[in-house]
Amino acid sequence: MTTTVQFAALEAGVGGGESILVVSPTSTGKTQIATWGLANGIQAGCTTVYLVTHRALAKQKFADFKVQLLPTLLENDQSSLVIATGDLIEDANNELPSDPLNSRLLVATYEKYLAMLSASGIPKDMSNTVIVCDEIQLIGDKYRGQSVEVLLTLLKTAGWRQFVGLSAVLQSSDAEMLANWLGIKLVKQVIREKHLNYECWGQNSIASCSTALPDEIVENRPLPPNTESNALSIVSHLLKHESPPTPIIVFCMKKQDTYDLAKLFVEKYISPSSPQLSLAFEELPETSANQFLSGIIEHRIGSHSADLTDEERNIIETQLIENKLDVVFATSTLGAGVNFPLGAAVFSSWKRWDGDKRQHIPIDAAEFHNMSGRVGRMGFEHEVGRVIFTAITPIDKMLAGHYLNLSTLPALQSRVYPSGFEQLSLQLIASGLCNSVATISDLICGTLSGLREADNNLNNFKNWPSCIQTAVDQLATKGMLIKTGSGLLITTEIGKATAFSGLQPNTGINLLEYCTKKIDVFIDCLNNRDEKTLAFLIFSACFSSQEFTAQDGKQPTRFLPYPLGTYLFDPSNHAPNLYEPVWQANIPAINGAKISLDWISGFEIRALEQYLPNLTAGMLSEMFRNLIWVMQGLSTIIMSAVDTRVPISSRPSFLQNNDDLLKKLRKLPRTIRRLSYRLNEGLPDDVLWMTAISKVKSTQNFKINRNEILKFKELNITSSEILCLGNSELDAIRLSVFNKIKPSPHQKANWLRDACRQWKTLQRKDAATRHINKAKQCGLGLLFESYYSSLGDNFEVSLENLLKALGILFEKIDDKQKTGAPDYLLKIKNSPKLVLELKSKKGDKLVDYNGATEVLAASEIHGHGDAFCCTLCHPGVDPSVAPVITNCGRLSVVESHDLGEALLRLAIGVITQEQLWHWLATPGQALMDDLPYRDNTV
User: Fold this and answer.
1) Could you give the CA distance from residue 193 to residue 184 in angstroms, rounded to a whole number?
2) Which one, 13, 48, 85, 831, has the greatest CB density within 10 A?
3) Residue 557 near residue 143, CB atoms below 8 Å
4) CA–CA dist 84, 89 (Å, integer)
5) Which pLDDT value is given to residue 217?
């Protein structure tokens, strides 16, 4: 059935490529309108992008498009559908895409798409791109609005083939203003296809209205008999209906309330005679949340908030979709655009604590109605949805009254401020869109916020250009920009890296300076294999940065869990080397670093929760994600800082004229990035490799989880050579680790044994298929096919042919006449020479430490002792090698499929030869995950 707003969108030309802003209530079919735009773009050969507000929503849309569009319009090409969020970039085949920005359909969060575009250089012409912006009212968000507005400004400047914006909660004047600014048609519909009844329950009566008659408010309806005006009594009353409007969502303003109210409801209104524990969470690590949930979901009651891990949230959401829950107590996380069959919403409260004002403040009408709109959605059985909230006191009745005025929504707020001009200016210059103060001023003043400021406060607006000049001067002082005599602005490599990372400029430069000052401490840690001290110092520095701590009058962009403010342990022995030596001034940063260190050391998440009251796994998971983001940004910034090709004058003052310092710093980028990988998995270094085993496919879709990996470590089984042995002792160990697997642990044990034998070979095989298919599009399919199918001397020939085709100059050192000579001297464009040694093993054998490092001695003996060395390992390198060689300072190892990815990106023009050199010439293991995606700004 086509809805009214869908008809209006079709009449406006959405199916023919017209750009529109669709503003209509939830559950009126806006997603289908967006899909028409995407389908039109895909059929026309365009790149298409679907932008969303949250990771969870990105994952849901990605899953939806796998079903709806992948088998049809995308012709089952798994590489054509890509998801990009803050912690994930992969295609529908769970592989890392070579060029996600040019995928046929990209689902991304707003900030991630902005970061990817900024790093790549914003195209000056995007006329072959279709953009869908879901929940576009995010442009007015207090914390995220600036990024969204900047992104829309950049897209507007570059143009598009088609733009489709979607919102349920923009007031008419704001919708018109936004549509006019974007230069697109406005399609507005105020009537829902499925109506909602809003009810405000007072002490003695009910005031109500309906979206069917939005201007009519009915007062003084009587309360139902034996029902009180509180959330739990109301839910109990609804459940007693002959056809109860289940599932019912009870919106809570505090995460703790989702537990407390659920527990109280079960105790008071269900009163189970004996506890029933669900097995739904049996395979997950134990947490306080899933312990609680396992005791209530058997009574068809659930709880949902950011305290839950992703896996726990998925279980609750699946139970909701499958109608296995009658009531779910949730924060607004469950109202963020995800489609559930909710029949009624009850607000336990509609006020949220405001830390700045130190009081509880009513949520604005836009958020209230966006949350309410998750009820009574199309496609589900409820004819009418119910939204119930309470207001007992006269003041609350007055405050809550505006929720019944359905035509009243808060005005959109401007979110581009002078306080953000420094980061914004850096992004604009690094992206290639601006190259002077004048062009930056034109673009920033042309934002929606700029136009509104000009209308509302002209005197302030007149100061914007001078504020931009000040921001540019500060960036130049920090070594992130260079100003030419003619006024042109150029980002330094550090400036580019900082803009790409998304970190604030002060964060980037301050963390870099800290690492420079403490580099000898870090090197000692590497020499002594004291990974715990190194990790703690890096973690605490990141948590002490401006991203997490208010500094210089600027608010943080990320927040540490509030329970971390309580004293946990004394780090005085580290104090002289801390980012903030007076550690008592920032206890949350110290606690966060301690917990993060314990996480990568293998501590159970339940044990970490118990460190401090009210600390939850969900909080910690979010903290780890934020720390990973900062660390990966820092790794990129340090990597740019140690590039010896950068002129001395283009470096920050503390990095000038000190080659020895640069050599030491070169050891940090991959060390920090490896720590981030460990943080993502929560694993010690020696068993991190086991996570890759899960990519070895099986008919039973077996995967090895963190708990199982840690059990192998406890048993001192940390290498693939041991784990793949087929003797009775290892058979018994594998069976003991998988003893809870049903119906039998034998199949998984056998899978793991075989997977450990084959994983590198299969990894190379999968990469070969992907790379060869992609290379055919640029006429290099046969060369890549030869690269992946050849062995021994033939492999050398195939590599040489590929290098020649890509324009990479090389000299063959080993002419079979020089004893022990390394294989090649690569002469990559605009870069120092690089020694490349090929090491291959037959079958499933991996290159060991001796094989990986012998190139160092060979290069010294044959006159290349000053050159950086790289060992190309086929099919792979033993996992124990990577963490050991980083401290060498002039050696990297790269596996053949990772180099294949790099050469493919070079072939399709995604990276440059200079970037390839930088990737290979950084100590440690060169992974495809570390590769940049594009550089259009060089």
Assistant:
1) 25
2) 48
3) yes
4) 4
5) 92
CA neighbours closer than 13 Å in the CB half-sphere of residue 314: 9
Answer yes or no: are the C-beta atoms of 856 and 885 closer than 8 Å: no
CA 858 to chain centre: 42
The number of helix segments (H) and strand segments (E) in the chain equals: 36, 26
Would the pLDDT of 233 be above 50?
A: yes
Is 407 a residue whose pLDDT tops 50? Answer: yes
Please determine, for residue 308, whether its predicted confidence score (pLDDT) is greater than 60: yes
Q: How far apart are CA 693 and CA 699, in angstroms?
A: 15
Residue found under tokens 């060369």 = 783
Q: What are phi and psi of 216, to 5 degrees?
A: -110, 120
Rounded alpha-carbon distances, angstroms, from residue 676 to 95, 576, 633: 19, 24, 10
N residues, the chain: 938
For residues 260 and 290, is the Cβ–Cβ distance under 8 A? Answer: no
290: confidence class by pLDDT, cuts 50, 70, 90: very high
H helices present in 110-171, as ranges: 110-120, 145-158
How far is residue 208's CA from residue 214's CA, in Å, rounded to a whole number? 10
pLDDT in tens, 907-931: 998 899 999 999 999 999 999 988 8
d(CA 844, CA 756): 9
pLDDT in tens, 670-685: 999 999 999 999 999 9
Exposure of 578 in the CB half-sphere (CA atoms within 13 A) = 22
Gap between the Cα atoms of 665 and 668, Å rounded: 6
What is the spatial distance between Cα 28 and Cα 368, in angstroms, rounded to a whole number? Answer: 18
Backbone torsions φ then ψ of 351, nearest 5 degrees: -120, 145
Q: Residues 857-874: what's their mean pLDDT?
A: 93
Q: Is the peptide bond before 684 cis (omega within 30 degrees of 0)?
A: no
Cα angle at 475 between 435 and 633, to 5 degrees?
100
- State which H helix or E strand residue 351 sits in: strand 351-354
How far apart (Å, rounded) are the C-alpha atoms in residues 493 and 383?
59
CA 109 to chain centre: 8
Bridge-based pairing state of the strands 47-52 and 129-133: parallel
pLDDT of residue 228: 92
- pLDDT bin (cut points 50, 70, 90) of residue 382 is low
Residue 817's contacts (CB-CB under 8 Å, 6 or more residues apart) are none
| Strand pairing category for 105-109 and 47-52 | parallel
CA gap 582, 719 in Å, rounded: 42
Counting beta carbons within 10 angstroms of the beta carbon of residue 938, is it exposed (0 to 12), middle (13 to 18) or buried (19 or more)? exposed
The one-letter code for the residue type at 134 is D
What SS3 state is found at 891? strand
Which residue has 């300072």 as its token pair?
Answer: 889
Rg of the chain over all Cα atoms, to the nearest angstrom: 29
For the chain, what is the mean pLDDT?
A: 91
What beta strand segments (E) does 29-96 contain? 47-52, 81-85, 88-91
Q: Where does 253-411 show beta strands of DSSP type E?
A: 301-304, 327-330, 344-347, 351-354, 359-362, 385-390
Sign of torsion over alpha carbons 802, 695, 932, 644: negative
